[in-house]
Amino acid sequence: SSASPLLAVRDVSVVFGGIVALNGISFNMQKGQILGLIGPNGAGKTTLFNCLSRLYQPSKGDILLEGESILTRPPHRIAEIGIGRTFQNVALFPNMSVIDNVRVGAHCRTNSDIVSDSLRMPWIRSTEKALNKKVDDILGYLDLRSVGHTTVSGLPFGTQKRVELARALAAEPKILLLDEPAGGLNHEEVYILGDLIRRIRDDRGITVLLVEHHMGMVMSTADYVVALNFGRKLAEGTPTQVQNDPDVIKAYLGSK
Ligand code: ATP
User: What phi, psi does 60 have (nearest 5°)?
Assistant: First the structure.
């Protein structure tokens, strides 16, 4: 593939005690790509996701964003370098409104700018106004304006997932990491979410990594798929290529 990928995973291994959770994983993500990461239970998907979001430090290998290693960055700084994420079980502030949750996301990215601007510029309120506008735009984009002032805990699970997406988008990520976004959703909601993810990519050029058990969603949403098994890369390619790969078929049949 192309000479300069947005994200490069290079020979990443993770060992927990004696267990090799990831064994020399390499792949590239191109800008604007939706990459689906699949594999049977225990394949290493969550471990890789946690490396990308800086919760785990690989035992070996490197992860490069626009050619620069992310492994020297502390986990709480990843939003600033353009990595956004959602969680398997929604991790919003349940007692805060939708608007305030999304504002938190926007601040993750812009907080230090706002503080330094306010020291120099008396017209700082314009920054605050821009922030409000950004939050409002995102709420409109994800059809959340009508629940903007609603407390998150009072919303249906599917809507909470959309709020989480809104919060992640507010930080203006270059790459969005989605941890099993289809989990807990019904059939219709899964495909609505898949369409939404594609729309976000099409409209905003955001690159998406999708860790997902729901094979139908991966196959209909992703442009490219990487399949793991027992911590190794089993196959990669278009959804059709990976779906028809004999090793992938065998791995899934073997895992009940
Ligand atoms: P699932 O689909 O069930 O979530 P997965 O593909 O996400 O599975 P991982 O959770 O990444 O797989 O697990 C990969 C391997 O690493 C498994 O053998 C698991 O038991 C082991 N493992 C994962 N996290 C830890 C940890 N914190 N400590 C020890 N072993 C771990």
Answer: -155, 155
Q: CA end-to-end span of the chain, whole Å?
A: 34
Render 178-231 in DSSP notation, one character per residue. Answer: EESTTTT--HHHHHHHHHHHHHHHHHH--EEEEE-S-HHHHHHH-SEEEEEETT
Helix (H, G, I), strand (E, B) or coil at 232: strand
Pick from 191, 244, 188, 187: which is nearest to 221 by CA? Answer: 191
ipTM of predicted assembly, 2 dp: 0.91
86 alpha carbon – ligand 1 mean position (Å): 18
Task: List pLDDT tens digits, range 21-56.
Answer: 999 999 999 999 999 999 999 999 999 999 999 999
Q: Mutation test of ligand 1: which of 14, 22, 45 has the most ligand atoms closer than 8 Å to its C-beta?
A: 45
